[in-house]
Amino acid sequence: MRAFMKQTLALAGLLLVLSGAGAQPAHMPHRTARAQLASGVAWAPDGRLWLAGLDTQNRLFVQTAPAHELQRWSAPRLLDTAGDAISADGENRPKLAFGPQGQVVISYTQPLAQPYTGMIRMLRSSDGGQTFSAPFTVHADRQPITHRFESIAFDAQGVLHTVWIDKRDQVLAPKVGKKSSYRGAAIYRNASRDGGATFGPDIKVADHSCECCRIALALGADGRLRALWRHVFEPNVRDHAFAVLADDSAAGVVRASFDGWQVDACPHHGPGLALAADGGFHAVWFGIRRQGDDDVAAVRYARLNADGSPRLDSVRMLPDEGAEHADVLAWAQRVALVWRSVEGAHSTLKAWLSSDGGQQFRLVTLGQVNGDNDHPRLAQRGERMVVVWRTMKEVQVHELHF
Amino acid sequence: MNCISELHRRRSVLAAALALPGILMSNRALAHDHHAPAAIKSVADFDAAVWAQLLREGPRPAAYVFTTTYCSTCPEVFELLHARISAARRPVALAAVVMDAQGARALAHAHHYTGVTRLYAFNGFEPEIRQAVDPKWRNITPYVVLLDRQGRTQRVIGPPDAAQLKAWLA
């Protein structure tokens, strides 16, 4: 170690000399590439669990595990993305969805040259994932602006929905000085009735969303999709909004959380949503709420009514100050909240499990790891629920037992 | 496990060594920053050791803006700080610390950060480095640390207000 320290000091001295007493070093440090671990998971109709992610060279791959042996992942299979760059950090990641007639779609955000710009791209298979199409852009708008943080899901009628954060309205809004007069971004969506072969027009769901948090999707009791996202309510309150994704929905946008968090910043922390047995929803989100004289940052859980409005007496904090990027699944009276908690280099995967519809929970530790890791990803097939956790070393699968 | 710790320690020491020229950069070198900041051509590693050293031995006053490549609310904070520095007409370091990209990817965003005099990029597990900066900070950006001439810090999520800016460069 002493020799190493000498070498290090010598290197620092050399850099100081070469940099001309204060100028910046001429070269950037060289290092091996780090994998972007953010991944998507989903169950295939045949019972295999699928994962889509990026390898250390940022190439898109899929791998699968059989239903009876979820730790036995197949070798990664690279997919041709025609050279697209792919966002897979923060709350961006590749995503998977399976349609009713052998369709498999994989979506991702392709970042463009200008900061904060992107296109929502998709690969499509019509043979159960044996072969995939070349990537294509999902939305009709092709301006090099923000189209990012997409979510995808099939509804009960087999219609594929894509929802994303879009800044076309912000671009058009008048500026006040250098700043746009438009608050935040917007939520847009489209629908495909042929499993991703063709898409309907881009439809605005809501003005004034937050700019870089994931959008949660869940099926309602009527088989139609609901979306929950972080919104920017006037003047700068970053609470959550809820909407039905349907052409004939007259419900509009419903406010789903009331933390009252006013901030001109990006939380990078989107919500989770799952259908409850009574037709309402279970929701989980991060926010900062004024409690007495303190601003309390926490991941909170609450029940929502069927229209998305919150049952305010059900709001409670997860029992972990370090909880981040929590997500939720539910089946009948079973509810699972899963999150990552980090302390230094050490990460713990935790679950809060309820068997009575979210009235009481028990805390369970599912796994621990040192070093880089993804947020927990949840997958559900009927009453079977799993948590997939990708680390630098492996892809763990944890079955949830209530 | 020991090997991992040793490797991590060596990486931290190496990162600190690589960052030293920037840390020791004199305020004289920053003297013309408030007129026309030079284009950023390099990016330095940032981790817990570098941060400790910057607080201890780095330029003062200084502002550190922690940001990500997908944080679209961040550029406004650089504009705000740059305007305050320009109005103060004195040498002040304004550093951008990119949390989600390294090397060329981080550098590609530098032109978007008005007035920046130094660019850093997280090197390591993001939450671990973030907690070393502030254990309570929950990945919200921009996260701003204002370091005054005496080395006192103010920590702000989002744009600092007028009182915080005044106290910083008082």
Helical amount among residues of chain A, as a percent range? under 10%
Amount of beta strand of chain B: 15-25%
Instruction: Give the helix tally of chain B.
Output: 6
| Beta fraction of chain A | 35-45%
Helix-strand makeup class of chain B: alpha/beta
Determine the most extensive contact between two protein chains. Answer: A-B, 53 and 57 residues
Describe the structure in your own words:
The complex is a heterodimer of chains A (402) and B (170). Chain A is mainly beta and 402 residues long. Chain A is 5% helix and 43% strand. Chain A is built from two helices and 29 strands. In chain A, the strands form eight sheets. In chain A, strands 1-2-3-4 form a four-stranded antiparallel β-sheet, with no helix packed on it. In chain A, strands 5-6-7-8 form a four-stranded antiparallel β-sheet, with no helix packed on it. Chain A starts with a helix and ends with a strand. By secondary structure, chain B is an alpha/beta fold. Helices cover 39% and strands 18% of the residues of chain B. A six-stranded mixed β-sheet of chain B has the order 1-4-3-2-5-6, sandwiched between helices. Classes of the chains: A mainly beta (402), B alpha/beta (170).
Question: What would you say about this model in short?
Answer:
The complex is a heterodimer of chains A (402) and B (170). A four-stranded antiparallel sheet of chain A has the order 1-2-3-4, with no helix packed on it. In chain A, strands 5-6-7-8 form a four-stranded antiparallel sheet, with no helix packed on it. In chain A, strands 9-10-13-14 form a four-stranded antiparallel sheet. Chain A is 5% helix and 43% strand.
Task: Kindly list the characteristics that best describe this protein.
heterodimer, A: 402 residues, four-stranded antiparallel sheet, 2 helices, 29 strands, B: alpha/beta, six-stranded mixed sheet, 6 helices, 39% helix, 18% strand
